[in-house]
Amino acid sequence: MSQKSGARFTEKQGYYLAFIHTYAHMFGRPPAEADIQRHFRVSPPSVHQMIVTLERNGFIRRQPGVPRSIEILVPPESLPILEWLGIKTSKSL
């Protein structure tokens, strides 16, 4: 993984990462920033700033000029997906 060693994400960053991971898993492609904006009900600049921050911290990678190119670089088991979706850890996704 390209994630910076020892780097930890905040709770809010974890929710964004979990959403991106879950969306990509469900739809077979990463979300657009507009999809993230609608889900979290925030402004476009807020979403873009979070994406830039996640990339700068090594949690995601994007290809410049390529839409929907977000790639999660943290192990899925470190994301708060199960808790976020209200799924008990004994149940599989």
UniProtKB/TrEMBL annotation:
GO molecular function: serine-type endopeptidase activity
One of the Pfam families matching this protein, by short name: LexA_DNA_bind
SUPFAM superfamilies: Winged helix' DNA-binding domain
BP terms from Gene Ontology: proteolysis
Gene3D superfamilies according to UniProt: Winged helix-like DNA-binding domain superfamily/Winged helix DNA-binding domain (1.10.10.10)
Signal peptide (UniProt feature, chain positions): none
Record InterPro entries: LexA_DNA-bd_dom, WH-like_DNA-bd_sf, WH_DNA-bd_sf
Name this protein carries in UniProt: SOS response transcriptional repressor
Organism per entry: Bradyrhizobium frederickii
